Amino acid sequence: MDFRLTPHQVELKTTARALTEIVMQYEQECEENNGLPPQAHDAVRAAVLDSGLQAVNMPAEWGGAGLTIFEQAVVQEELGRLTGALWDMVWRPANALRFCTPEQRERFLVPVIKGERRDCYAVTERGAGSDPQNLATTATRTDGGWLINGEKWFVTVGDHADFVILLAAAGEEKAPTLFLVDKDTPGITMTRVPRFMHTFVYEHPEFTFTDVLVPEDAVLGGVGNGYDITRSWFTEERLMIAARTIGAAERALELARDWAVQREQFGALIASFQLIQGMLADSAADIAVHRAYTHQVAWEASQPDADRKTLHAKAAIAKLSASEASGRVIDRCVQIFGGRGYDRSYPVERLYRELRVDRIWEGTSEIQRLIIANELIKRGTGVLQLPSAD
Ligand SMILES: Cc1cc2nc3c(=O)[nH]c(=O)nc-3n(C[C@H](O)[C@H](O)[C@H](O)COP(=O)(O)OP(=O)(O)OC[C@H]3O[C@@H](n4cnc5c(N)ncnc54)[C@H](O)[C@@H]3O)c2cc1C
Prior knowledge:
Butyryl-Coa Dehydrogenase, subunit A, domain 1, Butyryl-CoA Dehydrogenase, subunit A, domain 2, two-stranded antiparallel sheet
């Protein structure tokens, strides 16, 4: 076994860190104004294109960076250091767009890869959260296409996106189906833009769709395949969340460590107090262990012969445990900073608010536990094993 990063992976990590440092300059502005002005978006877009880290999950022949899942995790770990969710400005098109027809690819995916358009993914509804099968949005066949009616909640980047990848129950058989819907299509209203706990460079608005007419070729990946396509990228998305939370936790620990070796109370550095040392040590252990496991599973997911079912459960373990461990780390780091850790101008405070959602989106911690338990019950404890070479 060789756990070292290859020279190419080291270079990627260095490039991702350099891009992260550039984007980091906008953190304070984003926090203060709850977002960034168009000039900042343009500047970051140029920096992303310059770094070559646009659309890391898309093949190079379509204009993406064409990275393996392991390499993507290396990049996401660096970007995860950013507050204000500025990591999301380094666009990764929804993997579902891989199911585009050649015509759809030219119209929707390629412009997203180039950073000219932006997608958002709308599955969740008022009554369909952890259970997306409880879908109420419908698509009814009509002359020349489909009429879409319903509402969608928590649509990340919905304010900024040009088109929506929307899950609806299609036809009389209510077949779960994805549609590519331009956001300026008549009948689409952005009804509410809630303020969430974190400061996020984009919003997560709610939309209503009232008799929205889309053409026949708006269907993405075939009628009835909406859940399967959505589920098929959970493994990757959850691994990327695990990677980002570890990057965030590492930044927080670096800051807390640096603070602990300079802050004095009772005539001594707080780093000399064993209660502080315990928090630093527990945080280092949380980060080291979860990084190793996330790297292992991301590496496995990059192998062409990987067993997808076991990987699904392993990605659930990574997402569950890394997001919960990072939550513990950031809580300790806020504590080490004392009152300053509660001040929004300190990155640890922002990371504290931002890491919380990683235990909710892309399947809550409870849903990850159900996936893991289901794998154990159905197929035994093989999920705990490393794959062997033969
Ligand atoms: C900031 C943010 C951004 C988001 N972005 C998007 C997006 O871009 N697109 C999109 O489609 N969605 C998005 N979501 C939605 C997100 O995926 C859902 O919030 C999440 O899946 C949980 O659904 P819910 O909020 O309806 O909670 P519910 O499903 O109502 O869950 C409530 C509680 O019940 C628990 N629970 C539910 N079922 C079970 C069960 N079977 N066993 C045990 N416990 C259970 C949950 O774990 C949770 O603790 C976003 C959410 C947030 C907060």
